[in-house]
Amino acid sequence: MTLPLLDDVKLDGFPVEQLYPGWAPLSRAPVADDFSVVVFTEENTSRQACWWLESENYRASHVLALDPSLRKRLLTAMDPVFWPLASGVLGSPLPDRTGPSCDSLPEIATNELAGSWLEGYAPHTLLLPSGHADSGEALPCPNGRKIGANRITALLAAQRGNGPLIVSSPFTALPLLAQITFQTGPLSVSRFQEADTVFYLIWNDALPALRPSFYYPDAPLLISDDPGGAMIPGLILSWYARHPEHAALIREARAFRAEDFGVGQASGLRPKPSDENSPSPPAAPTPSSLPMEQPASAPPPQASRQGLKSRLKSLFGRL
C-alpha cells in the first residue's frame, strides 16, 4: 500500500510503502522542468525534510546531495527566479522590473535551492568572525572598498528597541534608517541602503547573546559569529524569492529624517558601559506598559540641511 502524496514515487525502482516512524508527507509541489519536491514533517518535533524527485523517481534528500549533473540542471532552471534577485535587490538598489517569484514553493525547499544556487553565483564570499572588527582598524573589502576604522565595531553594537532602527553607515558614518525588517526562521533581518550600497544586519533570536551579523553582498563580505552564518546569504535570497511584495515595501520605505534620531537612539550604537561605571537601573515596566513612542530632538529652524548632516556625521564618527 502506497502513502498519500507518494502514489507514483519510486525509491530505487520500487513504490514507497513505508517511512521512518513519526514522519509523514506534508506537501508535494512542482519545481522546474521535471523536478518536484515532497516535504515531510516529523510529528513530535515539527522538523521538516525534503525529497527531491526527477519525474517520479527519488533522487536525493537535499539539493546538495543530488548527482552533480542533476543539480546543475535543477539550479540552472531556477536562474529566472534567482538571477534577477541576486544581481538586483540582494545587493543593489531595487531594479525597475522584478522577475518571477517562487512563492508557491515550501520555505524549506526554497531555502535549499537559494543557498545552493547562490554558492555558484557568489562562491567566494568572505566569512569573518566579529572579532576581526574589534581591532578598530579599517577593513578592506574584497571588492576594493574600505570600511572606516571603528565603524564595524559601532555597527555590531547596534541594539534593537521599540523605535526605528538607526545605525551608522560603515562607509560614510552617516545615520541610516532600516528600509525593511523581516523574519526568516530565527533570523531577524534588516536591510539598509545608502546611495547604491546595500548591506544587512541580522540578529539570531535563538541566540540573543550573539552580536548581529553584517552582510555586504556586493563585496561579498559576511561578518558573523552565528554557527549557521554561512547560510545567511541564501536565506535572505530565499525570502526575497518567496515574498514578491518586497519590491513594494522597499519602494515605500522612507529615508532617515532628523526627527527619527530621538533621545537615546545613539546609545544603541555604542558599546555598553561596564557595570561598575553604570548606576543601577530602575525597575523595568512590564512589556505591555513599555512606551512605544520616543521623543525626537528637532533641529533649530535656522540650521541648514548641510549643517545638520555634518553634525550628525560628526556624532556618529565619534562612536
Elements, N to C (H/E): EEEEEEHHHEEEHEEEEEEEHHH
Shape: elongated
* Computed Rg: 23 Å
C-alpha termini separation = 67 Å
Number of strands: 16
- What share of residues is helical? 10-25%
Poorly predicted spans: 266-309, 311-319
> Major sheet: size, sense and barrel closure?
6 strands, mixed
Number of helices: 7
Strand order of the largest sheet: 7-16-15-14-13-12
Oligomer: single chain
Structural class, please? alpha+beta
> Overall mean pLDDT score?
83
Number of domains: 2
Instruction: Work out the strand percent.
Output: 15-25%
Q: What does this molecule look like?
A:
Residues 286-296 have a biased composition (Low complexity). Residues 264-319 are annotated as: Disordered. The protein has 319 residues and is an alpha+beta fold. The protein has two domains: 1-66, no CATH class; 78-271 and 305-319, no CATH class. 22% of the residues lie in helices and 23% in strands. It has helices spanning 68-77, 79-87, 107-121, 151-156, 232-242, 246-252, 305-317, and strands spanning 10-11, 14-15, 23-32, 35-42, 48-54, 57-60, 126-128, 139-140, 146-147, 166-168, 175-177, 180-184, 187-194, 197-204, 213-216, 221-223. Strands 7-16-15-14-13-12 form a six-stranded mixed beta sheet. The protein has a four-stranded antiparallel beta sheet with strand order 3-4-5-6, with no helix packed on it. Helix 2 (79-87) crosses helix 3 (107-121) and helix 2 (79-87) packs across helix 5 (232-242). The longest helix is centred in the middle third of the chain and has 15 residues, at 107-121. The radius of gyration is 23 Å and the shape is elongated. The chain starts with 9 loop residues before the first strand and ends with a helix. Mean pLDDT is 83; it is low at 266-309 and 311-319.
